[in-house]
Amino acid sequence: MTTTANTRAIKAGSDIPWQDRPILRLNDAAALLGGVSRSNLYRMQAAGQLVFVKIGGRTGIKTSSVIEYLASLEAIPAGALRERGAKAVPA
Question: Domain coordinates of the chain in residue numbers?
Answer without folding.
Answer: 19-70
